[in-house]
Design brief:
By secondary structure, the chain is of the alpha/beta class. The protein contains 6 helices and 4 strands. The longest helix is centred in the C-terminal third of the chain and has 17 residues.
């Protein structure tokens, strides 16, 4: 992984990781060795995928915020926590992550139309709408500007203005 991080820094290539909390110490180590490498952690590091939001996992994810080129994809809510619309049980996790990284380093992701295995009631259109509503309608701790960063601004800046 060291060469991958070195190449990312040298060529300004974004490395994106769909990882577990147990992977964060190694990502942290590599980010410290290669502070200019842009890194995205997908799916909120899958915290809550088993239905539980463990404080030690959240602290580890928030700890990566010390690296200024680490970004977080916030979602997919239909795969985290209770996995039941309207997904409001994810809001404390979302708030802690955004507090740590700032909205300028967070971007919403839907993961739709992915279906949850074993969930025969899954409806990608409803999952998408409910996931978007978590940020738009229920995240009262976010300003209009914060919501813009999450829903559009961060991704535009990271992927199209580099």
């Amino acid at each position: 992984y060291t060469e991958m991080f070195e190449t990312g820094a040298k060529h300004n290539l974004i490395l994106s990781f769909l990882c577990e909390p147990s992977d964060l110490p190694e990502i942290d180590r590599l980010c410290a060795l290669n502070p200019d490498t842009p890194v995205i952690i997908d799916h909120l590091c899958r915290i809550g995928v088993d239905g539980r939001f463990r404080d030690e996992d959240i602290l580890a994810l928030c700890g990566l915020a010390l690296h200024p080129h680490v970004y977080i994809k916030v979602g997919p809510f239909q795969h985290l926590g209770s996995k039941v619309r309207p997904y409001l049980d994810v809001l404390p996790l979302v708030e802690r992550v955004i507090d740590a990284y700032g909205p300028e380093r967070c971007m919403w992701e839907s993961d739709s139309p992915a279906l949850r295995p074993g969930n025969y009631d899954a409806d990608p259109a409803q999952d998408f709408a409910a996931s978007l509503a978590v940020i738009r309608d229920h995240a009262d701790f976010l300003s209009a500007s914060d919501k813009h960063h999450l829903l559009q601004g961060t991704a535009e800046r990271l992927f199209f203005e580099r």
